[in-house]
Amino acid sequence: MKKIGIVVPSLVNGGGVTAVARFIKDVALRSGRYEPILVSLCMSSDDPCSVNLLNVASWSKGVSVKTGEWEGRPYAHVGAKWGELEFQRYRCRPQVEKLLRDCDLIRVVSGSPAWANAVFGINKPVALQVATRTVVERSHVLNREGISRHLLRRIMTVIADRLDDRALRKVDAIQVENPWMHDYVKEINRGREADLRYAPPGVDASLFCPLPMRNIGIEPYVLCVGRLGDPRKNIQFLLEAFSTVAGNVSENVKLVLAGASEPTKEFWVRADQLNIAHRIKYVKRPSRTELISLYQHASVFALSSDEEGLGIVILEAMACAIPVVATKCGGPDGIITDGKDGYLIPLGQPETMADKLIKLLRDPELNQRIGAAARQTIVERFEENVAGNVFVDMWDRLVS
Fold first, then answer.
1. Are residues 37 and 124 in the same domain?
2. What is the pLDDT of residue 139?
3. What is the DSSP letter of 79?
4. What is the Cα–Cα distance from 106 to 123, expressed in whole angstroms?
5. Which of 51, 154, 158, 311 is 20 to 30 A from 366 (CA-CA)?
6. Residue 216, in any domain of the structure
């Protein structure tokens, strides 16, 4: 059996990248031909496994490796030298090389390409699963902050952008998760032989599945799942949209938010100002079973992000036959066919999102029709066995 090293920034932290890593790990195991070796890389400035400039006590201990278990599989988490500097986390280090030495293939799963730099020099074929570019991922946040704020983050973004392009030009294979990133990868690799594919991950359609019967009139709620404290998710946008929904549909319609990080204090202050805080519920870190139940009983799913490389939560909601209203923020654009299996709305138009949400809440027939079409899209394009075949084919080509 071949060994495939799956390298992920902060593997156990949850979120979209972890969900994609889970999918790839499961594809490897189901193939019967690849044994996954899991390696997690530090992605925060204060990671305890790192040597930090501002922590003199860490200088003598060196970069360390912490082992643990994730979903029944062992994994190793590796720190970085001078971890406060973002670009240092992208560098290869002996600890990573040792962990991956016996692998036949390395698979990097990350939001942005720069993380692939951490495995260059190990002399193994490298495949990169990537969603976006650092400069795109941070553009909305940096624009809101203004030029004078967080100068260091701006400098690090410039460096990371260069490392993104370096990685895209050096890896042996690239699978991207949205159409615009596919276009960028093709352009930057013009004239070079590399296996480039638009290949989003899939979802387990037998696990994320519809209820036999769903009545949107019984305890109806709009659901949003994600890292709600992340500015890119723009949960304030959804709040403004829901305030319009709350004023136009029955009092029993709620907004349910779920994720590893809760909305900011500013969110709750604004909710109080709009007099809708009592209609909002936050579910912290739901288990897989709890998450599936939240999807299955939702009336509609809303995604209000400024930028998404993919949006795995959209796939999960659609698999449960829940209609989705999402901003045109990158990833959803390659998943949803507007008006057929969901709705895509422009950025900066909460009133348009409110209009679509109200329509789906008021019209059970439309809700069921859009939801059924969403489920069909998942079965035909994003079911894990269908999507997984593309990944195994690429791995076979690389190791041969």
1. yes
2. 77
3. -
4. 10
5. 311
6. no
Q: What mean pLDDT comes out for the span 132-140?
A: 86
- The residue to which tokens 């993919």 are assigned: 310
- Strand 65-70 to 73-78 pairing: antiparallel
142 with 280, same domain: the answer is no
Q: How many residues does the chain have?
A: 400
CA-nearest of 138, 133, 139 to 115 is 133
Rounded average pLDDT over 129-144: 81
User: What's phi and psi for 159, nearest 5 deg?
Assistant: -65, -45
Task: Find residue 36's DSSP bridge partners.
Answer: 4
In a domain, 214, yes or no: no
- With contact defined as beta carbons under 8 Å apart, do 80 and 114 qualify? no
Instruction: Looking at the structure, tell me whether residues 164 and 236 fall in a common domain.
Output: no
For residue 328, the enclosing domain spans 221-382
Sign for the pseudo-dihedral over CA of 36, 39, 43, 47? positive
- What Å distances lie between residue 175 and 7, 68, 244, CA to CA? 15, 28, 39
Q: Looking at the structure, do residues 265 and 140 belong to the same domain, yes or no?
A: no
Helix (H, G, I), strand (E, B) or coil at 41: strand
Whether 208 maps to a domain, the answer reads no
Give residue 215's pLDDT: 84
Indicate if 171 and 28 belong to the same structural domain.
yes
Count of structural domains within the chain: 2
In a domain, 212, yes or no: no
Q: What is the pTM of this model?
A: 0.86
Confidence grade of residue 145 (pLDDT, cut at 50, 70, 90)? low
